[in-house]
């Protein structure tokens, strides 16, 4: 049986492919691309139909992070000209969340820059979640505050959080090349703490940082083993003023192959196209919907996405439908497991959702590198919504 038939059959049964099969997806040619998308699309429709889950990011605290994640516009020493502000007040966050829900989002993702929350920060987020739920009791809430200390996940769960986002981002082997202020093991520990407290785990990756195919496969299998309910796939946004500003390796075709590989390894898991969707998939975004079952509506944490109405038009034009508040995201056998500990499932953008590239690690160019030429004029820094006087994009 050929590769795609094997992967389709396994995916329809909810089985995980071998590592070699996953690598082979990344090595397919452009001539095979539509066959790859079609095969991944069959698996996607088996478990998620034609539903697209919409998630909405609210950046509660932007910039000035003491950590040094190379891909991140909010990192220590970042010269990126992003919005910088401290904690939004609960009513300000609720106002932004309301716009996202009104635009069709089922889940609101509350994100704050920083190494990890203090206990006072947990109190702030507790108040923020209460303000959001006052306006919309049914909204799913995912929280992303960095590394968790003991009992903080339990406190968030008790305060009503459904999920916690913390991305692994890249393979264990290359993690030290993109960040030195914390380790891959620290990230795994936080995902496990969240899961252990009954929060739905949302954890994903960033592609385009100069990593090899083996790195991508490693991190995707690690996410599967961790039991992430939701896997956000970020495509690096190379912000000027970050170490990875010159890392432009992704083509739309490469992005689609990566999404397909993630889908085959996670057939029955929410796969979300996260930061960098517009920048790297460009006019091929609708093909991505045939593979992933979830996207962010509107803007990202520090960069602007396409207009919210354009997201909705794209979903409709491609023949998909927005997942309703009353519909389960995960298939029954997965949601039963999740419901044993919590409700809902992961959302997430990378901790900072801004993406970058892996300059210092001297990454290995992908076989289908688009170019290493800078296109920084294409990165649109967010200037509206949370932290500004302007209306959010939703
Ligand atoms: S990814 Fe998170 S922890 Fe790392 S620099 Fe950005 S905001 Fe800080």
Keywords, please?
394 residues, alpha/beta, 14 helices, binds iron/sulfur cluster
What does this structure look like?
The chain has 394 residues and is of the alpha/beta class. It is built from 14 helices and ten strands. Strands 1, 2, 3, 4, 5, 6, 7, 8, 9 and 10 form a ten-stranded parallel sheet that branches. Helix 2 packs across helix 9 (213-226), helix 2 packs antiparallel against helix 10 (252-265) and helix 3 packs across helix 10. The relative contact order is 0.20. The structure holds iron/sulfur cluster. The site of iron/sulfur cluster (SF4) has 11 residues, from loops. Iron/sulfur cluster binds next to loops.
């Amino acid at each position: 049986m050929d590769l795609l038939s094997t992967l389709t059959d396994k995916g329809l049964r909810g089985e995980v492919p071998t590592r070699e099969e996953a690598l082979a997806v990344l090595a397919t040619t452009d001539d095979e691309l539509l066959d790859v998308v079609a095969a991944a699309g069959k698996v996607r429709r088996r478990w998620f139909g034609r539903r697209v889950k919409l998630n909405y990011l609210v950046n509660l605290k932007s910039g000035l992070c003491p950590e040094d994640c190379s891909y991140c516009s909010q990192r220590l020493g970042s010269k990126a000209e992003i919005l910088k502000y401290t904690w939004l007040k609960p009513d300000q966050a609720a106002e932004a969340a309301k716009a996202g829900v009104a635009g069709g989002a089922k889940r609101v993702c509350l994100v704050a820059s920083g190494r990890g929350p203090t206990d006072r920060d947990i109190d702030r987020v507790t108040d923020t979640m209460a303000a959001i739920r006052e306006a919309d009791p049914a909204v799913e809430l995912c929280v992303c505050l960095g590394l968790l200390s003991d009992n903080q996940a339990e406190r968030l769960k008790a305060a009503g959080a459904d999920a916690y986002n913390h991305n692994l981002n890249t393979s264990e082997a290359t993690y030290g090349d993109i960040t030195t202020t914390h380790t891959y093991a620290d990230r795994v520990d936080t995902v496990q703490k969240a899961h252990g407290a009954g929060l739905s785990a949302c954890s994903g990756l960033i592609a385009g940082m100069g990593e090899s195919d083996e790195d991508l496969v490693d991190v995707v299998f690690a996410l599967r083993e961790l039991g992430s309910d939701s896997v956000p796939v970020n495509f690096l946004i190379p912000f000027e003023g970050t170490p990875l500003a010159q890392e432009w390796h992704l083509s739309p075709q490469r992005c689609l192959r990566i999404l397909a590989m993630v889908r085959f390894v996670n057939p029955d898991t929410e796969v979300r196209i996260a930061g960098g969707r517009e920048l790297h998939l460009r006019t091929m975004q609708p093909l991505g919907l045939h593979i992933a079952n979830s996207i962010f509506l509107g803007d990202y944490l520090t960069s602007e996405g396409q207009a919210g109405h354009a997201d909705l038009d794209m979903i409709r034009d491609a023949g998909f439908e927005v997942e309703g508040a009353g519909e389960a995201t995960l298939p029954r056998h997965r949601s039963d497991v999740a419901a044993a500990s919590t409700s809902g499932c992961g959302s997430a953008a990378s901790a900072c959702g801004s993406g970058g590239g892996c300059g210092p690690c001297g990454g290995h160019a992908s076989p289908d590198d688009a170019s290493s030429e800078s296109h920084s004029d294409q990165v649109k820094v967010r200037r509206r919504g949370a932290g500004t006087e302007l209306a959010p994009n939703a």
